[in-house]
Amino acid sequence: MESRGAAERMSSPDQDPSHTALLSNIPQILCILVFVVVVCICIFDFKTVQLYFNLMIQWIRINPYQAIIAIILLYIASAIFTLPTTFTHIMLGFTYSQVFQSQVKGFIFTVPIVLVGCLLGAALAFLLSRHLFKNFVKKQIENSGEWINRNFRAIDELLVAQGITIVALIRLTFAPFGITSYVLGVTSIPLVDFAIGTLAYIFNAAMQVFIGCSLFGMQQ
Asked: Where do the TM regions start and end (predicted)?
């Protein structure tokens, strides 16, 4: 009887480390599946995505103020699914310049919307990475060898000490916006420092919005 009870306890799923690990990784697996599905749709059905994007631009022309929330949500989704935003910046600059019939007004109106959307999207991608993937990534790094582990710790400590400066420098480059948010999420940089550093993206975004506004001026 005792041996049978011991065998039952050993075969119980609750005691199986691999079963427990699988259950704990379900949120990560679901997020990865959703991510892969959305990215595949964007890649293999690009014409449909482009059609909906063009329809949205037309809707923005008709409802420029009501569209602000939709634009911010679009930027949040773009950051989460690591979709490029350069074309969106340019098109919004062009569209709002058309709406106001002024390059200056279009630029002034568009840049804050772009910055808010990108900042919220970056913060959400950062938090998803931190709470869903950080422990997994750290375990992989720890198992990758002493050299990688040591260098990751050094970079991690540097980000904690000078996080705002490093994030700001990253945002001034053309590094993929969503991907860098996920990468920084697995480090120990505080969310506040990450958000403050991300504000430097205003220069990058403003330049791309300005291109859109300039295209409107050339059309005139």
From this structure: 26-46, 67-87, 107-129, 158-179, 199-218
